[in-house]
Queue: 2 jobs
Job 1
Amino acid sequence: MPDLCVIPGDGIGREVIPPAVAVLQAVTPGLSVQPAEAGWETFQRQGISVPPATLEIVRACRAALFGAVSSPARRVVGYRSAILTLRQELDLYANLRPVRSLPRVSPRPGVDLVVVRENTEGLYAGRERLEGDVAIAERVITRRASLRIGRRAAQLMHSTGRRRLTIVHKANILPLSDGLFRDSVRQVVEEQRGPGDDWQVDELLVDTAAFKIAAQPETLDVLVTTNLFGDILSDAAATWCGGMGLAASLNWGDEAALAEPVHGSAPDIAGQGIANPTAAILSAALLLRYAWQMPERAARVEAAVAQAWAQDLDPAAPLRTETVTGAILARLA
Ligand code: IPM
Ligand code: MN
């Protein structure tokens, strides 16, 4: 049985993670759960947002479920975002962000796309400096990171039977960096494509991709892109699953995977029992599907979520975390 490190974090992270753990336990009896801490409150207590012990537990388990963390509004000396630290320290180089229409809660049927976001470099390389009145941020694109995100995307094409892989970039104004990204991804996906694979590979400029996400989301399938473009496009696409309460993600490296609802710690609603646990539960399903290679169990969880929202829950009623959790667990019983 797999081991799972559980990092609830701050705010509503603490409310949505227990339901996701309960769902994983329902479909994976014998799952061993190791709690760990990270985030703003951890920083305030220990002076570090991701203590070394937390990294050790995730490395040992190879899989983690992460809630959400708060960040200070102003720069605090010594503080580094917990999620960015985890992505970097654990080399979680791919971020899968699927967006699928759910009955009744999604504003539009027929959307089923995945953003595959490069998760370690680009404008997140942390190379920002001031030269007098000029602020410069370096956007780092390497062949190595572009090849491995391309390989991940090709692996996703193989394992899911999807039909179209679109490389999203801005090589018209960034011919060196985004040219390298595009060419590397193209090269590796062509290499990975077997004789029986009939999926197509194409590309879109990021602005056109944004327009298509807004206007024709059902025409998109798998989008592979650089870090910041993936950050922005995945939030835009999340509209179509029904908003942040439903948007799931998996940070996925070779040594570990960390599932994470896309939403933040939402301090404004924390502690009231009104956070939607669906994104955390769907993120847990990604762990089952990709990290643990248990696609049937993942499909059971996803079906339970879809059925609960289609038939058992009233999307117009005020949301209670425990009501949503109860409905999904009942579908799994
Ligand atoms: C996300 C978030 C993070 C990011 C923040 C919290 C650093 O927006 O996971 O998309 O920018 O990657
Ligand atoms: Mn984001």
Job 2
Amino acid sequence: MSKILVTGGTGYIGSHTVVELYKAGYTPVIIDNLSNSNIKMLEQIEKIIGIKPEFHQFDLCDVEQTTAFINDNPDISGIIHFAASKAVGESVQKPLKYYHNNFFSLINLLEAYQGKKINFVFSSSCTVYGEPDVLPVTESAPVKKATSPYGNTKQIAEEILEESAAAYNNYNIIALRYFNPVGAHESALIGELPIGVPQNLLPFITQTAIGKREKLTVFGNDFDTPDGYCIRDFIHVVDLAKAHVAAIQLLEKGNPNGKYDVFNVGTGNGYSVLEAIKAFEKVSGQALNYEVGPRREGDIVKVYGDVTKSSKELGWKAELGIEEMMSSAWKWENYLKENPIG
Ligand code: WQD
């Protein structure tokens, strides 16, 4: 049973990926420094899969610990690298924190594997496309200048990976460009655990509906879209987790496209913020308290992915729709109310 290292494995997407890896027959091993996640997620994962995954708490920016861990674990055949700082707004306030965390961890991992064969899946983002000129956006669309240090770390990390795959013959790499991950595991035992006030739409919606927030402010409804609201490609986190398993499987088989490749991970469907709110209201059976406020600086107006390449070459396709995304997120928020974590 192949061992797959999941960095950031107690986080939102990481924890769902650990579950899907295990279900697909892999042995996931987690490294997380718990800077933005809770150790209790390990028990939550155990409630789903029946075993507590191997867990190591340290910071991948620590080169000695990272190198020692890799040397001590030669049976790891693949890495899914989630561990990174990811708050767009904070990255503008603290760019050095983002460049430090996101690059040192990546470079330490790559250097620790120099001369050793490794399959590597990187957590990238549709943020690299900026405001796309053509929709749905394909993987060959130009990468636009990043609008935040966070976005810049994803762009530069992709370059580091592409150049490393070309220069050394031991890395086989796939970067997955996520659109907007939402929802939770159907068991409602794992899901997103935002620290403080949520910056993203879905946790803000569910926290408002449960009464933790007074109301949702929608950032503008006068955009050049059919209903005036921004459009996003929301993707269920369980589908997203499965895309990582598919990426590992493709790397194991040998990717005919070469040693470095990128894939869009979305549904291919764009929903407006208003449509998302309406879908939430429908599945929760309650009206959401929201008001329309001013635009948020830097927001993309509309983005959704072309998923032809993912479905043909990665052999992966999203299966869950907007209602499953909303209902699972709502079920998770209700679970948290009864069973607070953190
Ligand atoms: C979605 C829509 C907001 C909150 C995120 C990441 C980005 C990338 C993609 C990873 C927008 C609106 C939101 C609120 C609102 N992911 N909104 N009120 O902006 O697409 O970006 O996903 O790399 O880095 O930040 O997601 O959930 O913040 O916003 O009206 O309180 O919801 O304006 O139109 P976004 P989001």
